[in-house]
Amino acid sequence: DIQMTQSPSSLSASVGDRVTITCRASQDIRNDLNWYQQKPGKAPKRLIYAASSLESGVPSRFSGSGSGTEFTLTISSLQPEDFATFYCLQHNKYPYTFGQGTKLEI
Amino acid sequence: EVQLVESGGGLVKPGGSLRLSCAVSGFTFNTYSMNWVRQAPGKGLEWVSAISTGSSYKYYADSMKGRFTISRDNAKNSLYLQINSLRAEDTAVYYCARGVGGPELWGQGTLVTVSS
């Protein structure tokens, strides 16, 4: 199975900060990577697909990059509503696998 | 409006069985592969299973093989997950998710609690 290593597991930041979250795959997954945001008590929401494509309606302060084994999610200027937990997911091969999650806190 | 609505969760004793359902509306169900993803209380997301549009292909996480069975009824616009021999560690919110290149659109989830 493909292992996804996500870092950091938690992150403290302030409104206006630029933050970066990283996911590393245990083997080449091309660009078959999605990023999700989950707020407490809610279902996850896909933000980025195919490593760098922004989901419709998602603010442009979110961006994704990378291919192969290393990927990043960047939030250019944190807004209050961005504080949540973020997950990467590889869908290159079954079984699909998630990263461990990054909790973004104030 | 696109909707995915899970049901069938509840309190079950260890060793019991449960069938979760996901009723969808607002899109052409038989053109999308579908997924189940679960989340134990306070833990991260765990992909469980996926099924192709015509049910020809079914995939499972390694730890789910043997006890979990995914199925769908395209005539009823419904997705199912049968879980047998339930264990305490199966306690989680179970989400169904439409899948095009990984889970794309999610339901709100149904809670399964395994306890005596």
Q: What does this entry look like structurally?
A:
The complex is a heterodimer of chains A (about 110) and B (about 120). Chain A is mainly β and about 110 residues long. Helices cover about 0% and strands about 50% of the residues of chain A. In chain A, strands 2, 4, 5, 6, 9, 10 and 11 form a 7-stranded mixed sheet that branches. A 4-stranded antiparallel sheet of chain A has the order 1-3-8-7, with no helix packed on it. Chain A is globular and about 35 Å long. Chain B is built from no helices and 11 strands. The relative contact order of chain B is 0.32. Classes of the chains: A mainly beta (about 110), B mainly beta (about 120). At the A-B interface, strand 4, strand 5 and strand 10 of A face strand 5 and strand 10 of B.
The total of helices of chain B stands at 0
Helix-and-strand structural type of chain B: mainly beta
Q: Roughly how many Å is the radius of gyration of chain A?
A: 13 Å
Number of distinct beta strands of chain A: 11
Query: What letter string, H or E per element, gives the SSE order of chain A?
Result: EEEEEEEEEEE
Q: Determine the number of helices of chain A (DSSP H or I, runs of at least 4 residues).
A: 0
Q: Please state the overall shape of chain A, judged from the principal axes of the Cα atoms.
A: globular
- Contiguous runs where pLDDT drops below 50 for at least 5 residues of chain B: none
